[in-house]
What does this fold into?
Amino acid sequence: MNPYVPILFMLGLGFAFAALSVGASLVVGPKRYNRAKLEAYECGIQPSPHPAGGGRVPIKYYLTAMLFIIFDIESVFLYPFAVAFNRLGLFALVEMVLFILTVFVAYAYVWRRGGLEWD
Amino acid sequence: MGIEEKLPAGFLLSTVEGLAGYMRKASMWPVTFGLACCAIEMMAVGTPDYDIARFGMERFSATPRQADLMIVAGRVSQKMAPVVRQVYDQMPNPKWVISMGVCASSGGMFNNYAIVQGVDHIIPVDIYLPGCPPRPQMLLNAIIELHKQVQSTPLGVNRVAAARAAEEAALQATPTHQMKGLLA
It folds into this structure.
């Protein structure tokens, strides 16, 4: 038998114990309903009402996420270049400068169009 | 008893009530409900000098969802009363209440319109602890009394019978406004 099978068995045992505990308490436990028990805990005051579905999420979070993706991918390309650039010669340098300039056009556009303003 | 002598060595018998009572009292977590000066004495009980950790109660839980015991330590103002009730309601059963100090028990020295004259106007209380403030040893005594009550709580059919007996006794007892005291 594979020596790692007991670990899998322990995993299953742990999962079964949790399931049994929750199931047994659902079946055997008393149900004493109380409206406050189901409300959010807000240090004893009545919880403030929240709009259903989480309300309208401001669009600026989406914009920030998009900009992060673009510039993060750019920096991922820069990491191996930064490690190996002294062995790659002039051709790689020119190549990388052109790449950065291309992304820089996008950066300048976002900057001038106000995409970096948070409010 | 009779059965335990006939069993081979290494067996111990108990009752379900005894076991459940022991498990309930052995690590009863209080909810942090220090309101005023009595809270300082409650904090002192948490120190190593008086040591509430020997009862397993050093973990005062801020959330009532994980608490068993509510030690109302301090005066309850009219503004705080719905908060007390909401926190009590959000505690899951089984739960117990110690009203610590005279202000929580009866309004204390504040006999006015701003302080609730006894937290038992709002929530059911198990142990009343007088003192202004009670010394930490007195709070420990109240906790030990509560542990004795919890250890001997009847369950199931016994609980129904005990409730009926308590109701009978309450109906037979003299009402508060007819109690004459020691001079009568």
